[in-house]
Amino acid sequence: MRNTILSSVAAVALSATGALADGTITIITSFPDSMTGPIEAAFEAAHPEYDLEVLNKKTSAGVKFIQEISGENTADIFWASAPDAFEVLKADGLLADVSIQSEGIPDKIGAYPLNDPDGKYYGFAGAGYGIMWNERYLQANDLQPATEWADLASAEYHGHVGMSAPSRSGTTHLTVETLLQGEGWDNGWAEWKRIAGNFRTVTERSFGVPDGVNTGNFGLGIVIDFFGFSSKASGFPVDFAYPTVTALVPANVGVVSNAPNEEGAVAFIEYLLTPEGQTVLLDPAIMRLPINPATYANAPEGFPNPFEDSTIGATVQFDVAKSGARYNLVNSMFDVMITYRLDDLREAVGALHKAEARYAETGNAEAKALIDEAWALIDANPIDEAKSLDADFAGIFTKKRKKATDEVGERQAEIEQRWDAFVLENYAKATELANKAAAM
Amino acid sequence: MSLTSSPDGQRPGLADRLPSWLVPNLSGLHLVAVMIALLLIGLLLVPVAQVMIVAFQDPATGAATLQNFMDFFGSALFRESFWNSFYVSAMSVVVATAIALPLAYITTRFHFSGSILIQSLGFIPLIMPPFVGAVAMQLIFGRNGTVNLWLRDTFGISIPFMDGLNGVILVQSIHYFPFILINLSASLRNIDRSMEEAAQNLGSHGMRLFRRIVFPLAMPGYIAGAALVFIKVFDDLGTPLLLNVNNMLAPQAFLRISSIGISDPMGYVISVILVVFSVLSLWASFLFMRGKDYATVQKGGGGMAKRTLKPAEKALAYGTVIFILLLVLSPHIGLLLLSFGTIWSFAPLPDGYTLQNYITMWEGSKTFIMNTVLYAGIAATLDVIIGTAIAYIVIRTNIFGRKALDYLATAALAVPGVVLGIGYLRTFHQFDVPFTGEPMASWWVIIALALMIRRLPYALRACTAALQQVSLALEEAAESLGATKRRTIQKIVVPLMTGGILAGFVTSFATAAVELSATIMLVSSNNDAPLAYGIYLFMQTPSGRGAGAALGIVAVIVVAIGTIASQFIIERDKKLKASSGDH
């Protein structure tokens, strides 16, 4: 009910385009209308002197937009989930130094520091990654919900899982990197490829995953928590769980350099951190974890509280510097090994599941050897962790030229083609071995 | 521009002594031609060049190089994407033909009640944003959509309509087949009855008559439509993205250009290849048409002989038409169900029905609707003005470079929306809007101009066709009675072209109203956002799907009313002309 009232207030606020406002605050955000609307309405009610202009873009497109317009900036605030996107903007010097006053906000959520140590951006809500599933779909396919990442790799989920690509969605990148940091580089990638072997699809937008689960296009999705909570709150037959290895990370907000209305931008961020601002996060259409522990007193029954339930997101100490250093490289590896070669990977993993089922009946040792060899081929990585953190190598994927004379040794296209050939051959060979093992 | 101010040959002196090519004789029409050329260069060539140039730069040094193109062809993934794009485009033409051919044939060939209805309904798929169509088709034909759930319950089978490339082909064919239908129907109607009668006298009938006489004569229209479908599918981004098909050229370009931080030149290389390939296909279709001029000098009678169907044939014809209409309107049916549905999840139909989605939509989207009418209105008005001017210059004058104007305006067809969007951001960010001082790239007029350029080819084709049907003799008569060129155009040419101009306006308006790919890059504030963007926003949240669908339905209805109204006006116009010709 409150939602309808709030959104109609938002609609009124939208139609009365700031005739009386003495300051327009322009916000670039990846958050959907259903989230920005109630917050905008609440903020404008508390600060009638300001008028919010909200511009919705995908995280990556938003970063690109701010980079493109930096010559003559018109944006005041960048507001998005992924800390990595803020790291990119910060590295380009596109975020301003501002001082934000707030009360009762802790330094950390889970194991993750809430604010940028250099004060360029601030956390305002928490979010963790997990698995969302469609009850009707699972029932029709006789499946149980998966609660751990490793579960998703088991044979029964073949063709039932969906995920977005990290290069497309900042939040998905965090999920990928969390597992890589939590399980180690080689094990992490192996796990991703085994899970990806069960993928139905790799969606282009992060919202494509909850959408696919909601419609029942696939049964399980790897999503950020609020997609699960808000889908459930909208009435879809879905549910959500946090696996053990997950990171709670803050969703962030920062002021763009040379903002036309810096004062208004600061006022908005400070409002977000007030108890009233934090309470809006519990709106059924938003459902993000507030970062003010006191706000949880108003939370609905069963809503997770990371400040009391220490099992959520405590396992992984997320290293932002490491993630930032190889950001584009990890995206590129995921796309080359998984997104663009999903059909080949799925075929190989499917064949292996069949071979393993057959082995469980026969116990043939020779078949077991072939199966292990095939898994090793799928798990094989084109580069090791040290190489991924080698600044020169990772630099090939960012192409940020400091000077015109800077020469990069290899081109991204060359490396991607080499990786592509590598995984394609491995997947083909793995399929062949698995088929051989299944025939024994 | 100051050169153009001298009136024809009136000024003695310096100008006379200079070689004539230095001081050309410029009439009003020349002036218009120059202005249009400048407009096209500024709004099309320069922005596109801004994007394409990156493809020719060494990413490390910025020096000119062709290395990026060698990398493109050296990559297995890109070769595969190229092949996939080609395959999907070709198959879409085949499937779209299979949809359009029976409809065109039945309506032009037989006395068939409801022909007008088919011709109008056949236009409707075009006016839905393809990405919205894809959402609805997923719900109906998807892996767990209505049709497959039913098939699985009843027969235990499922058909992968929407898996991978199949899905793209299906959605694209249903979306773009009207291009073939419209062009094919027009040329079938223009076939001279006497050709057919001659063939019948010589003993040809049935399929042979169709294959040897009717289809070849209808070829120019068919090729024009098929080439359009091919190019649009080749360039289209929204559909493959929404269906999560990555291994095609346009998505590859978009994925690479819009990724965070990456300034990988490959995205730009793909843009260049998309543009070049589209220009080539367009050119190939022109070449093909040039060799085949089937225009018949003497008109034997309007269109082919119409036959009355026997009862059994009638049943067959109705069956075919109803089946095809159900298929091509399935996105709309799906959207309608979604807009009235409560929750639709893993079920053949929504769980329940409600009006809430329309209430939510109405509260939040008046701005989107107003903006759309404004932008698409500006774009379509400018399109028909410029289109008429270009058509007149190309057909009726011998101004130097007039063909170039035509090609340049048509080339907009070959520029993917994303490329144009990025180009506009790059080009117009350096300039400020007069008086307000904000950058032009974030000014809403730019969105209208981008739509204008994107839809100009449609309006131009319609205006050219209309002008070709206006007899030169009428203009000569007016001029010999003392009317100036300007007055002749105003009082004779434009009024006679009304039908065609209106058709051009509607096509431009309808398709501009649902355009997303260029606008998604250019919208800089939700208050400036058009309808398609609004639908996109709604569809990004679990609770907003129904409301987004409701907004989609509103878009379809608004545009459909416009289309049907203009159909009536055109028909009436034709009748008026026909009856005045009788006297």
Helix-strand layout with pairing:
The complex is a heterodimer of chains A (440) and B (583).
Chain A: H1 2-15, E1 23-29, H2 33-46, E2 50-56, H3 59-69, E3 77-80, H4 83-91, E4 108-109, E5 112-113, E6 121-134, H5 135-140, H6 149-152, E7 161-164, H7 170-183, H8 185-196, E8 199-203, H9 208-215, E9 220-224, H10 225-233, E10 238-241, E11 248-255, H11 262-273, H12 275-280, E12 289-290, H13 320-325, H14 327-339, H15 342-362, H16 365-379, H17 385-389, H18 391-395, H19 412-438
Helix pairs in contact in A: 1-2, 3-4, 7-8, 14-19, 15-16, 15-19, 16-19
Chain B: H1 14-17, H2 28-52, H3 67-74, H4 76-109, H5 115-121, H6 130-141, H7 146-155, H8 165-190, H9 193-201, H10 206-235, H11 238-242, H12 249-258, H13 266-291, H14 311-328, H15 330-340, H16 356-364, H17 366-396, H18 402-411, H19 417-428, H20 444-468, H21 472-480, H22 485-513, H23 519-522, H24 531-538, H25 545-582
Helix pairs in contact in B: 2-17, 2-18, 2-19, 4-5, 4-8, 4-10, 4-14, 6-15, 8-10, 10-13, 12-13, 15-25, 16-25, 17-18, 17-20, 17-22, 17-24, 18-20, 20-22, 21-22, 22-25, 24-25
